[in-house]
Every structure is written in C-alpha cells, then in structure tokens.
Amino acid sequence: MLIHGFVSGNRVNGPGLRAVVFFQGCTLHCRFCWNPKSHAFIGDERSVAEVARWVLCAHEESPLDGVTFSGGEPMQQADALLELIESFRDLLPSLSFGMYSGYSEQELADGRYWCRSELTRRAKQEIWRLIRRRLDFGVLGRYVASRPTSLPLRTSANQKLVLFSERYREQDFEPQEAEVHIAAHGLVQVTGFPMAGLPV
Length: 200
Ligand code: SF4
What we know:
Layout: E1 3-10, E2 18-23, H1 48-61, E3 66-70, H2 78-91, E4 96-101, H3 105-109, H4 121-134, E5 137-140, E6 160-163, E7 178-182, E8 188-192
Parallel strand pairs: 2-3, 3-4, 4-5
Antiparallel strand pairs: 1-2, 5-6, 7-8
The structure holds iron/sulfur cluster (SF4).
C-alpha cells in the first residue's frame, strides 16, 4: 500500500487518542485541496503488516482509542484498507476506526469509486460493505472550498459525519483544532484543522 504519512497519536481526528494513517494517492482533485502532495500514486510500497506494526508500536507507547484513515483517498486503496482493518481484529480488538473519504456514502455503496487495484464494481460494493461494518464513523464527501464550515471534523458544509456504530454520539466529536508534531529528527507534521475553511 502507498502511505503518505503516519501520526502515532493525536486528539484532533476523532474521539480520544488516535493514530492517523494517511494514504497516498487521490484522483478526486477537489479545488484548493490543502494537501496536493498526497494526490500522486507514487512512493514506497508498504506492506499491510508493516503499517499494522506502526499502529501496534504507537499503542504500546500510549494506549490508543482508535485509528483514523485519511489521505489522499483511503477508498482508492480499499482492498488494502480492508486487510489493514481486519488485521486488528485479533491484535487490538478494542480499537475504533474512523475514515475521511471524498466519496459520498451513496457512491461507496454503489461501488462508484476508483480503486488502484482493478476490481469489479460488485467487488467494490462488497469491500465497502465489509469496511463499513468495521467503521465507527466516517466523514464523507468532496471538499468544496466555497462552503467552509466549523463543524467537527468537516472541512466543508456539504460533508457528512456518519456514525456507523453505536460507539460514539455527535457530542463526542470535539470542535476543530490543529496539532503540530515535531519529531526528534526534525520532521514537522500538521494535522487537524488549522482554520475553518480555506480561502477561495
Ligand atoms: S478527496 Fe481529499 S485528498 Fe482528495 S482532492 Fe479532495 S480534499 Fe484533497
């Protein structure tokens, strides 16, 4: 799988302490996307087991409430995403899962999403059904820069926060905030919501 970045623990991408896996690659090209470097499908291939190990190590350092998948577009590597989620079933069964996707729930349910692996529409529908069953929440829909919002986890007002399980309620999602992580070797990562909407 192609990975853009990994944050081992933060509190601005869903309830509690969460690791964030940023997928590399997105063909949706929302205007003024604030992370265009995540669009190209290039980079080092990582195995699902390796990415799962990053999460395990993060959990050993500070127990996680969950993992949030972001991008890029996680659903454009949906088969690898499903394998990753399933790998936690025995390893860390208490983890919750959330996902940002530029696709709407209807597009996903219909299998109308592009995937890096060649999959039939029926296979994409089935993969989404299995991912959906394991997700606790999703933030779904394209980023529309002309519709900024300050709603929790959303960058534009058209996007939907969908609760797929009974684990969380709307009130569990904190107001938008940003976190800046500076690693010992100098890597700086900004995650969360540095501003309510971006200039059009
Ligand atoms: S779906 Fe997300 S990563 Fe892709 S272009 Fe839109 S905002 Fe950017």
